[in-house]
Amino acid sequence: MNRTLNFAHRGFRSRYPENTMLAFSKAADLGVDGIEFDVHLSSDGVPVIIHDETLDRTSSASGLVKDFSFDELKKINAAAKFKSAEPLNGTVPLNEKIPSLEDYFDFIKNKDIISNIELKTGVFEYPGIEEKVYALLKKYNLQDKCIISSFNHESVLRMKKINSSLVCGFLVDSWDLHPAAYLKKYGVECYHPPAYRLTKEFVDELHNEGFKVNAWFGSIQTDYSQVLITGLDSIITDYPDKIADLL
Q: Smallest Cα–Cα separation from 235: which of 177, 196, 183, 202?
């Protein structure tokens, strides 16, 4: 059985401001196998990395991401609302920019790290986002070092249509029954369920059909060791340091 891979959810977000270059660089320093992050489009069509459709929860601004140009987004403090879950060594810089996808790719291009790119097309579809993300993947030659995922499965299939060899995953927040048939129908390689849904039998069923299971943790952290014994392929958490210790 292959080793479970350790993915940092929105970067090392339990200790650093989520989806910022600081959180990504600290995750890389830790030696993670992958980094998961979220992509929207600015009003002028630039792929940017932030989780919510709105700026309010994490930044110094308010409003919809899609209503701001990239130049405007660059002036916003993405770390303004950050509070660490654990004591920090030293202080977190008070100002972190909202990164563009290109900023991230330029940072990650020579690192042995898989990028799990979540297309945040569940509320706003951002027409053309798939082509823009793929153009940057191609520019940085990262097509073979990424997983494309989304809760909008049509968005995933649009990426598959652009390049069928891209590794993709259907994100779900449900207890689907026998998802292997669904994955097989649409030619998607990975299933991304919430970690609390996993059992060894469920993971084995997907593995037996040739699919990978990359599970994510949201705000509720269940027992990591119990999740790891299911034999899943990747675990996506806010605490990549704790997963590193367990692995």
A: 196
Residue type, 218: G
68: tokens are 């701001």
Return the ∠ at Cα 71 (arms to 117 and 131), rounded to 5°: 35
Q: How many domains does the chain have?
A: 1
Catalytic residues: 9, 51
Amino acid at the residue 195:
A
Give the SS3 label for residue 228. Answer: helix
Q: What is the dihedral of CA 54, 76, 23, 106, to 10 degrees?
A: 100
pLDDT of residue 88: 55
Long-range own/partner contacts, residues 77-85 (CB < 8 A, 24 or more apart):
78/17, 78/19, 78/20, 78/50, 79/17, 79/20, 79/22, 81/57, 82/16, 82/17, 82/18, 82/58, 84/14, 84/15, 84/16, 85/14, 85/15, 85/238
Per the structure, the complete domain to which residue 200 belongs is given by 5-246
Tokens of 24: 């990504």
pLDDT digits (tens, 9 = 90+) for 161-185: 999 999 999 999 999 999 999 999 9
What is the C-alpha separation between 198 and 170, in angstroms, rounded?
A: 15
Q: How far is CA 27 from the centre of its chain?
A: 13
CATH number of the domain that 227 lies in?
3.20.20.190
Contacts 24+ apart (CB under 8 A), 173-177: none
